[in-house]
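step 3/5: co-fold with C2E
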Amino acid sequence: LEQARSESRVVTLDLSDANSALDRASLMRELPHAIASGQLFLQYQPKVNVRRQEIAGAEALVRWRHPMRGLILPGDFISAAEECGEIAGLTLWTMRQVIADQQVMQAHGHDLPVFINISGVLLADDAFVAEACLIVKESQAKIGFEITETAVIRDPDSAIAHLQRFSEIGIPLAIDDYGAGLSSLAYLKQLPAAELKIDKMFVMQLTSSNRDPLIVRSTIDLAHALEMEVTAEGVETPAALALLSVMGCDMVQGYLISRPVALDAFIRFLDDEGHKAVAALRPSFVRP
Ligand code: C2E
Ligand code: MG
Ligand code: MG
Ligand code: MG
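step 4/5: write tokens
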């Protein structure tokens, strides 16, 4: 470990090699301090209900403003946080920050559920689950969880039991990135989730590929048969939105409506542009 520490200290200077294993090691070493010293912040991305044509909620996405490296996106540090045991602390920080931010939203007249990404590894962490339940119960906040399978769920039985606990105390659950990576029909069968989010890899080429629309339509039908609502992530074009609407997709999220933005910009979006954006979606709706 000492050797790895000194090696990673040297490699920190090599900014060109941003994705090497040792670079990850140095990020892991810095993460606890980054959380404690306020280098993390959240952005919010709205989720729109296409049938009701209204903003259904938001997803909170974490970012790291690193003093030397600038902005680091979660793709570059979440798996490191999972490996070094920092993911519980990071996620509890995220929950508390979301609750504080929701109070600001409420002061501006916006009362929306906010979904937080919960890494699969945390479903094996009894202490995290207990703390997360306590935070939600005490705050009475409208918080949902998106279950992200960035790591293999090693003990599915205990993961399902923990998800049931979340569900019982009123936390809505969504299966994230469905169709990509590790998501499986076995999870779909067992998880007490009311929402399924189709991964953006199937949505971004929806109108330019032959297979993606078939996959998306079957997934929507499968989810509906299981009485789940469907969200498409990565909706970037009016054409994709129109097609998803015809296919009966319940909710959409993507750059077409808004990129993830900081709290103040998100409140401005809710105050003003959001309604315009949602209204602007209307002419593009093609009904079956
Ligand atoms: P995710 O939960 O699937 O989040 C959606 C990702 O797609 C976000 O990337 C978002 O910025 C991006 N996105 C949204 N709309 C569009 C679009 O129209 N086009 C394109 N090209 N991209 C779009 P981001 O913020 O980099 O997050 C990546 C992943 O990191 C998330 O994927 C989630 O799995 C994870 N993550 C983010 N925040 C947290 C967190 O607080 N805790 C945990 N455990 N994971 C997190
Ligand atoms: Mg998510
Ligand atoms: Mg997702
Ligand atoms: Mg995704």
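step 5/5: annotate
The two ends are 61 Å apart (CA to CA).
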